[in-house]
Amino acid sequence: MLTPSQTAYVPFVSVENMMRLVLHIGIEKMLTELAAEIESDFARWPLFDKTARVASHSDIGVIELMPTSDGETYGFKYVNGHPSNTKQGLQTVTAFGLLASVATGYPLMLSEMTILTALRTAATSAMAAKWLAPNGASVMAMIGNGAQAEFQALAFKAICGIREVRLYDIDPLATEKCANNLKDQGLAVIRCTSAEEAIMGAQIITTCTADKQYATILSDNMVGTGVHINAVGGDCPGKTELHRDILLRSGIFVEYPPQTRIEGEIQQLDPDHPVTELWQVINGTAEGRSDARQITLFDSVGFAIEDFSALRYVYSRLKGTGLFQNLDMIADPDDPRDLFGMILRAGQA
Amino acid sequence: MLTPSQTAYVPFVSVENMMRLVLHIGIEKMLTELAAEIESDFARWPLFDKTARVASHSDIGVIELMPTSDGETYGFKYVNGHPSNTKQGLQTVTAFGLLASVATGYPLMLSEMTILTALRTAATSAMAAKWLAPNGASVMAMIGNGAQAEFQALAFKAICGIREVRLYDIDPLATEKCANNLKDQGLAVIRCTSAEEAIMGAQIITTCTADKQYATILSDNMVGTGVHINAVGGDCPGKTELHRDILLRSGIFVEYPPQTRIEGEIQQLDPDHPVTELWQVINGTAEGRSDARQITLFDSVGFAIEDFSALRYVYSRLKGTGLFQNLDMIADPDDPRDLFGMILRAGQA
């Protein structure tokens, strides 16, 4: 066989190499740098090619492609959502993504995105809270202690200065797992036995549960004035976490309204209920928190630009680390018109 | 580092392994088997989830995602089109694709698709001609002798019994390359110096040129009664090869009308000009060639189902060949809720 030329290779970041990269950079530093990258892309939001995700639904799950482009770089993420997967010991959500050059259409990098999505989701949450949460917030309630919980806790520690996390999950084993994972991470970790206990003294409430249903993780009387709610788990049609009355009392901030109105907590509200786009708060064209008594709500569903930022960040940090494999993914004959001859010569070589 | 479990691995077919697979199976046998796979998927056409491709356009090219699903398996192709790439020694079109399980959302196989697309395009052309070309066709004109030409010639030899190919390209070097590649393949290969010479005695005319413009590769007076035209090159808005008058004299067969009316030769016609869907000819619900004097035209643009068939065919032929690498692409913690713990343990290991 002939050796492929350099343009034939696409760097691939495996799960193992992504873990190595996280450990190499340090998880809190990586979350902080990711949040900065996402924030700077939100600040130039109008530049991006924005499409709703392309979904293929079945009875038991969904497979989605989430493309975007800033005119120089193109990115997309493949992601599935299959709640019943856990019964077979499989992940509910798996993901991978690709960056490509808009100028040539050639792929630049392929990467696992299960871990990277967990990181970017937490980084986006904490970045939003930096703009919206009350001054001096230091205690966060974490309701839902599944796969996303530790990432949220460390992002809020690194980016928002949270010092205490109060954990609650309907499954005590999830709380136990989360508390154990966080025990040497420089946070005060409190195990709680009810959502009411978890929110005591918290300026920030993060909800991140997994049930695919209209659930009421927080009821209206549990939410006092001035708190910031980081609602992560309500992220697809038919899946919400907050009582509707909380939404009516809150200033609501979203990523991309056409998507959030279908997938977010605000699917419970009228389609013209006022919301603020987070990117406008960041670039100074809309107001963030109006006063110390306002309840702010970041109704997060995850948007393609966050994946784009995350992929570009990883791509920028790969050089010199060796934490990738080169995949021979692009056919690259010496004469672009001679694809067939390349096969013939491979047979002769 | 811990060893990923088996479910974390996704088989990847590199360009080199795709070439080995083609050589292992034999190119004509592979084209024949691919055509059979595509034909059987066309026969169950209504079953498929059909979406127009999701395109991201720039001034100099396009990047597209082409997803489809038959309810059991999901597939998508990434493909770019950048005509100016050849000036830098890059491919105009590169592609890769993925198969996934609809039941779990887990990827089943990642594959290069630059070579595979060339194969499936030729297999689809020849499969259509099997249904539409005049009886006993043995001579094919090949106008446009670029990357697709040899694949077309061998597919028509293997599937339609073509014995002579008559080559013409505005660039004599392309004809020379094509003729050299075909010299030991069991075909009579005639180098021609004009399109008029190429079509002499041909029952099938294949046009496969690359210029992105409204071109007239064939003018009306060049096309006699009874021939089959396999129009491969007119495949995006603003890119056609046939004079409009030819279309008006022909029975026109297409893959997916909503896509072909935008991308195919028939972009030159009224949006309600009658066309026949090829899948209906195959499953017996529409007529193919009406008589020996009819001009039949397969206005081919390439559709996601053909890529799906091709990926599934490759997947079915991989076992036992060793012609793939396992990519550690899916994060697979022992406890699906313990993604963070997996990273921690990777650091300790």
Automatic annotation (TrEMBL), chains A, B:
<dbReference type="InterPro" id="IPR003462">
    <property type="entry name" value="ODC_Mu_crystall"/>
</dbReference>
<dbReference type="InterPro" id="IPR036291">
    <property type="entry name" value="NAD(P)-bd_dom_sf"/>
</dbReference>
<protein>
    <submittedName>
        <fullName>Ornithine cyclodeaminase</fullName>
        <ecNumber>4.3.1.12</ecNumber>
    </submittedName>
</protein>
<keyword id="KW-0456">Lyase</keyword>
<dbReference type="Pfam" id="PF02423">
    <property type="entry name" value="OCD_Mu_crystall"/>
</dbReference>
<dbReference type="InterPro" id="IPR023401">
    <property type="entry name" value="ODC_N"/>
</dbReference>
<dbReference type="GO" id="GO:0008473">
    <property type="term" value="F:ornithine cyclodeaminase activity"/>
</dbReference>
